[in-house]
Amino acid sequence: MDTSTHVVMGIGLAGLSQCDPVVASEPATAAAVFLGVMLGSQAPDADTFFKWKSNILYIQQHRGISHSPPMAVVWSVLIAALAVGIMPGASFRHVLAWTALSVFIHIVADLFNPYGTLAAWPFVNRWVCLNIIALFDPIIFSTHLAAIALWVTGLVSPRIVFPILYGVLVLYYIWRIRAHRQVVQRLPDRDPEREEGESYTVMPTVALSRWNIVKRRRDGTFRLGHWKRGTVTWTDTVRCSGHPLVEASRSHPAVQALLDTSRFVCATMEPTRYGYAVRWADVRYRHRKQFPLVALVMMNREGDIIDYFVGWLNRPGRAKRYGLEWERS
Asked: What single DSSP character describes residue 18?
């Protein structure tokens, strides 16, 4: 989920903690729990600080080990200890329990997004994503805002509004899981271009009735489209280049960082004023005719690497800086 959603989830858990008699009756524990769940709801994304060191490290680590079971234990204990240290007299056991819940919910919520996490590390060293909930879900965000408003204004007790909120959201997740499963099951029969050996990936959008589709063909090309109310619409085809310079760039650390986190990377090559740019793009993310999550390897006319970039290339100015064409929507 995005940062704003994790923030309102943290506030929501602070409200839910009022159902705990110890938290409700002890001001020091309540304050420590509030601090614990707010930090716990953000802690797994501390890997964002890797961006200050290098984009390669950030792409490799974001939502990686920081979202794993061992780190969930570490985050919970460290944050609870900090919260209790700041609020003397607070119950460590209750602060730890609520902090651990906030960390757990953060990790599970991210697991339902298309980007995925290393939630099974160290048992399975691969990215896991369920493709059920969009990175920003207006239902989850707006229902939290409404519940928080009712609590802050004193109109409804937190012991009433937040159990209802999370009960509704559990049902919402169940409904989205079933909706996703139905689309996956029906998609092959609804695809007018279906051929044997093709595979489909269905991903959520902010529109509840629309799902994005990535189809991998047998020849290695990708077909992009969407599902809406039982109808499949194909909008684009992405063909991957097999040029020798593309293969030469594959071993670059920036490219490997992207390949390690996604099975949907496709490379293209284009001439530039300095030589060539090999663009490795994650085709799951398409915005205004662009694929913003990329690894770029810039080469001179002799094929020597002169520069690179990895990350989100979502502004025309930055693309032009690297000599790339920018197709406007």
From this structure: G
Separation CA 305–CA 214 (nearest Å): 31
Would you give the DSSP letter of residue 180?
A: H
Percentage helix, strand, coil for the chain under 3-state DSSP, each rounded to 5: 50, 20, 30
Q: How far apart are CA 43 and CA 140, in angstroms?
A: 20
H-type alpha helices, 155-306: 158-190, 244-249, 253-261
Confidence (pTM): 0.89
pLDDT tens digits along 204-231: 999 999 999 999 999 989 999 999 999 9
Return d(Cα 228, Cα 218) in angstroms, integer.
Answer: 25
Output the DSSP codes for 40-82.
HTTGGGGGGGHHHH-HHHHHHHTTSGGGSHHHHHHHHHHHHHH
Instruction: Copy the structure tokens of residue 106.
Output: 């953060």
Structure-derived torsion over alpha carbons of residues 12, 207, 190, 188, reported in degrees to the nearest 10: -40
Kindly state the average pLDDT of the residues 61-90.
Answer: 93
d(CA 234, CA 134): 20
Structure tokens of 23? Answer: 């938290």
- pLDDT for the residue 30: 96
Distance of CA 41 to the CA centre of its chain: 15
pLDDT tens digits, 247-281: 999 999 999 999 988 889 999 998 888 889 999 99
